[in-house]
Design goal:
Layout (H helix, E strand, L loop, with lengths): L13 H18 L8 H12 L14 H10 L6 H12 L5 E6 L4 E6 L1 H8 L11 H4 L3 H8 L3 E4 L12 E8 L6 E9 L6 H22 L8 E4 L7 E4 L2 E4 L2 H12 L6 H8 L7 H15 L4 E2 L4 E2 L3 E3 H10 L3 H7 L11 H21 L2 H8 L8 H10 L3 H16 L6
Parallel strand pairs: 6-11
Antiparallel strand pairs: 1-2, 1-5, 3-4, 4-5, 6-7, 7-8, 9-10
Length: about 425
């Protein structure tokens, strides 16, 4: 075979290869050994899938639905290039045997398009918009594996890790941010065994490069933002973008804007005073002076009084995480969670919000038992001492390093007089 990334070498019998691969797949799921002629890229993917706890009968979970899916797709960096992808892949998918699929960097399918009958057949295995097809979720598959390895890949028939996906063959290529090189997602063509051909792999790679070229052109244009955007997670000083400019707010001003963004109807002076200050001796005069300084920073058109309120709608990263959690989109919520809300703030209302948000995310992670998501939280600065998360991680990914860290945390609690259940 000249190219290990192509599923079938010239002259190979696809029917015989399917039979051989099915036997190899059964051997691997039963004994953990990989037999020839399984390609190295597939063997490595099978091993990663097994380590992630994926079973051969696993079904993809649908994480994004309805309004949450629509909102997420509309704001995704690949949304502007979807017309180009449809133009390039549409004629190929219009034959009724193939589908165009586009996933994000977490392997979630955002768009799945093609012939209605083929879509319905793919839908029976949850190959639908909003479903998570990451390797760590459903094992080896072209879009999930392309995102995992960061390069174009074909997955042929029984090379798929889950049995319900084995009647399909797919080819996918990652799409990178032209400015940062970060993987944004992948473009995928899914269909029958005829896709196991070098041309299909080259085709999706060319489509992905065309998308990156268009993204580079789009990046030169500055979007017009009508609503204000507020970034408050993982930072003590918020960033507020409004009217084409971005300002960094002081800690106190950050707290005020967070609370006003939470209450678009406005807050009275007394309400703000109680929400902001632990010290009950702080007077309304102090608060009015702070608001006057904030108005000087934002401009007179953004901050109104009686009651105090922001005059433009505000979209915040805090609100994005809350919406995704409410919709059960845990992976999407974690992707937007850049850290605790204004971690240095001691304002009573902000402290409550910070605790509620963190507790909501970690509770969803523990309940979901996804090893990748638990690992992301446990290795973040805010999760490295989170005993309950490490315990949950030790159940689903009991590696030596995880068990060692859990043991160290439990010993620390005992040593400091903490109670370990």
């Amino acid at each position: 075979m000249t190219d290990p990334w192509v599923a079938l070498e010239p002259g190979a019998d696809p029917v015989e290869r399917v039979r051989t691969l099915r036997r190899a797949h059964e051997t691997f799921t039963a004994a953990g050994t990989v037999a020839r002629p399984v390609r190295p890229v597939v063997a490595d993917s099978w091993r990663r899938s097994a380590r992630a706890g994926v079973g051969p009968d696993r079904t993809a979970d649908v994480e994004l639905t309805d309004g949450v899916l629509g909102e997420y797709r509309a704001k995704h960096p690949l949304a502007p290039v979807m017309p180009l992808l449809r133009e390039l892949v549409g004629p190929f998918a219009a034959d009724g045997a193939h589908l165009l699929a586009v996933c994000d960097a977490h392997g979630r399918l955002l768009w799945v398009e093609g012939d209605g009958a083929t879509l319905r057949r793919a839908g029976r295995m949850n190959f639908v918009p909003g479903a998570r097809w990451a390797e760590s979720a459903v094992g080896t598959n072209a879009p999930g594996t392309a995102v995992a390895v960061g390069r174009p890949v074909q997955v042929f028939a029984a090379e798929h890790f889950t049995r319900q996906a084995q009647p399909w063959t797919c080819a996918a290529a990652p799409v990178h941010d032209p400015r940062t090189g970060r993987v944004l997602g992948a473009v995928d063509v899914t269909g029958g065994n005829a896709l196991a051909h070098p041309h299909s792999l080259g085709f999706v790679q060319a489509v992905a490069r065309a998308a990156e070229s268009q993204l580079a052109l789009i990046a030169r244009e500055r979007p017009v933002v009508e609503a204000a955007e507020l970034t408050v997670l993982g930072r003590d000083e918020a960033l507020l973008t409004a009217g084409g400019r971005t300002v960094r707010l002081s800690r106190r001003h950050s707290e005020i804007v967070v609370l006003l963004a939470r209450h678009p109807e406005g807050l009275t002076g007394d309400g703000l005073l109680c929400a902001l200050y632990e010290d009950e001796s702080v007077t309304p005069v102090t608060l009015r002076a702070e608001l006057a300084r904030l108005r000087g920073v934002l401009g007179p058109d953004l901050l109104a009084s009686r009651p105090y309120r922001l005059t433009v709608p505000v979209e915040s990263d805090l609100a994005v995480v809350e919406r995704r959690l409410a919709a059960g989109a845990v992976t999407a919520a974690l992707a937007a969670y850049a850290g605790p809300l204004l971690p240095g703030s001691r304002a009573p209302a902000v402290t409550r919000l910070r605790r509620q948000l963190a507790d909501g995310v970690r509770a969803a992670l523990i309940a979901g038992q996804d090893p990748d998501l638990l690992t992301d939280w446990a290795h973040a600065p805010w999760g490295e001492d989170d005993l309950e998360v490490w315990r949950a991680l030790a159940v689903v990914r009991p590696t030596a390093s995880v068990r060692a860290r859990l043991s160290a945390l439990e010993e620390e609690l005992v040593g400091t007089g903490g109670w370990v259940r």
